[in-house]
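[[Per-residue structure]]
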Amino acid sequence: MVLHCPGMEFLNVGHNPWLVAVSLVVALVAGATGLTLTKDLSSKSVPQRKLAVSLAAIALGGGIWSMHFVAMLGMQLPILFYYDAAITLTSALIAILMVGFALVLLHFTTRSKAVIVSAGAIVGAGILAMHYVGMAGMQLCRAVYTPFGVLSSSALAIGLCILAFGTAYGVRSNRNIIIGTLCFGFAVFSVHFLAMETTNFVALPEIREFGPLISNEVMAIGVILSSFVIFGAFLWVGSTYLMPAPARPEITDPPLAPAPDPLPHDTRIPCERDGGKVFIPAADVAFVRADGHYTQVYTDTERHFCVWPITEATKRLTSNGFIKVHRSYIVNPNKVSRFERAKDKGRCTFEPASLPPVPVSRSHLKEAQDAFQ
């Protein structure tokens, strides 16, 4: 990173207003796509969550990269310049990996306020890293930065991304995802142009070759292709906002096989920890979640792997007062601190707040209401 020094001769810089506007649209569409892809993952299996998180990382990270280079295509300099292909592609990889790391924290650890803030800060740092690495790939000219520009763009990137993820992951509703999308899109857009406003350019007499060179024309083709992918994904997930969920008849679970003899109240659940078996008292369990052919058992402080499938856990634990609230969840009503209903669905929250909320499906809503009145 080169900082401003007296005596440098700077180039005149302009911007195409149409491409500036397009770059904002790309950032907003990428944010909407990525944040929507990760909605309602708690009710899905681990492989499904991994796939959704991977696609969301590509959408958000690729959107950061595409927005930057759409804006760079609109930058007008009085000299011809190129991009180094290796550095340019590295900048895209950095954005995708840092966003992916943030999403892994959000969807594969206990989601607390500290985790959400950390994820937002990581994404903000990813935007900055992508921007400055991408700028380093310019050939025949060099970017010259000011300390104020670097510090102000850093504060803005991290602050807006924390706001974006704090909103989108505070309550996972369409409204909050839209607000989070606006914060994310404007974070990417404003960080780029704030950094560019305080950046100057000087001409270089020769190419500092690291990898193959990319002209503006070839870069335009790459950006168009990446934007097609992002917009296509947005159309795919757009039904979340444009199409109401179809009305479904009230359904009930199929009859269970004859229940075993009632178990004593101090039933213990066989779980695995550090390669050994432990038995967790049912009274200490907040809820049990399906995980493929197995289950995850949540206590106030820990999560354990259990070999019981959700059907077996349901048969054994409902005799101990547990309630099935979703095809993938059964809860201990003694651990539920609050039940909330939203139209034809609901959710249960727990103390401590570090435990994730549990969704209540439409078919189990009446049972949950009766239990928590």
Summary: The chain has two domains: 14-242, 268-372. The two ends are 61 Å apart (CA to CA). Residues 346 and 360 are 5 Å apart (CA to CA).
